[in-house]
Amino acid sequence: MRRPRYLLFALLLCWAALLPHYTHAGEWINAGEETLTISGGVFLPSFGTSGRVDTTLGIGTEIDLEDDLGLTSSETTFWGDVTWRFARKHRLSVAYFRFTRDAGAVANRDLTIGDETFPVGASLSTEFKLEIVPIAYSYSFMNEEKYEFGASLGLHWYTIDFSVMGSASLNDEDLDDSVSADADAPMPLLGLFFDYHFTPKWSAGFHGQFFALDLNDDTFSFSGTVTNLRLSTEYWVFNHVGLGAALNWFKLDVDLDESDWVGSVEYEYWGPQLYATVRF
Predict the structure, then answer these.
(1) Cα torsion at 47, 62, 255, 272 (round to 10°)?
(2) How many CB atoms lie within 10 A of CB 216?
(3) How far apart are CA 197 and CA 24, in angstroms?
(4) Which of 3, 35, 50, 234 has a CA 20 to 30 Å removed from the CA of 263?
(5) Which domain holds residue 108?
(6) Domains identified in the chain, total number
(7) Cβ atoms of 118 and 107 closer than 8 Å
(8) pTM
C-alpha cells in the first residue's frame, strides 16, 4: 500500500516544477473543463478514538485513546489529491493522508488489551497510526456552466496500527508488557456531490459519502459503517493556480475479526483543510 503515496508525491513534485510555467498561460479554463487537477496542503483535524482488542479468552476493555492513553485530540498532517477528468462527465481521483499519534500516560484503571492487562498506575506508552488512501470514480449527471452534480463510487483503504507498552511494579515485581494490533480495512463508499460556480474564479461544493458493510472472506473479516462529509470552496488566483479551504467530517466504526486484530475501532475526526491546487 505504499505505491499510491509515492505516485501522489511524484505528481505533486511535477506540479511544483511546472507551476512557474503555467501561472499566466493559456485560455481560461472554466470549472468542469479541466483535465488534470493536483492539490496539496495541510489538514488540521480534531479526533475522537476508541477501540477494543480481544483474545480467544475474552473481550478486552473498551478504551478511549485520548482519555485513557493520553493521545492528543488534534494533529496537523499533509493532505494531497490528484483528479483526472478523462471525459466531460467522468473522473478518477486518488488522495493520501496519514495520522500518527503517540503519547505517554499513567493508567487510571485496569486495561485489558489483547493478551495483556495493564493495572492501575502502570506507565503506558502508546502509538496509533491511521493511513488513508481514498480512490474514487465520479460520474456527473449534470455538468453545466454554473453547477455540476453527480455520484461517486470509491474505495477507502485504511491501514491501522496500534501498539501499547506498559511497565509497573506490583508486589515487589517489575512488570514490562507490550501488545500490538494492526488491520487493513478496504471500505467501499457511495456518494453524491454538488459544485456551484459563483463566478469563473470562485466555486463551492459539497461531497457526502456513506457505506455499511459486512465482509467475511479469506482475506478480510470486518463489519461496520463509514461516513465522510466535505464542504469546500476554491478561488482561482490565476488560470492554472488556485487556493482552497474545506471542512471535513469523517467517522469509521468497524468490528474486526482478523488474525492481527480481533475487536473494534471507532475513529472520528473533523477539521479544516487549507491547500493550493493547480489544473490543466
Answers:
(1) 0
(2) 9
(3) 21
(4) 3
(5) 3-279
(6) 1
(7) yes
(8) 0.83
Three cell numbers, residue 231: 464542504
**Looking up cell 471500505, which residue turns up?**
187
Q: What is the pLDDT along the chain (280 residues), one digit of tens a residue?
A: 444 454 555 555 555 555 555 444 568 999 889 999 999 999 999 999 999 999 877 899 999 999 999 999 999 999 899 999 999 999 999 999 899 999 999 999 999 998 888 889 899 999 999 999 999 999 999 999 999 999 999 988 889 999 999 988 766 666 788 899 898 878 889 999 999 999 999 999 999 999 887 767 666 677 888 899 999 999 999 999 999 999 999 998 988 887 788 899 999 999 999 999 999 9
CATH number at residue 36: 2.40.128.90
Residue 191, CA distances (Å) to 3, 151, 172, 232 in order = 25, 6, 58, 15
- Residues 6+ positions from 200 with CB-CB distance below 8 Å: 28, 30, 31, 236
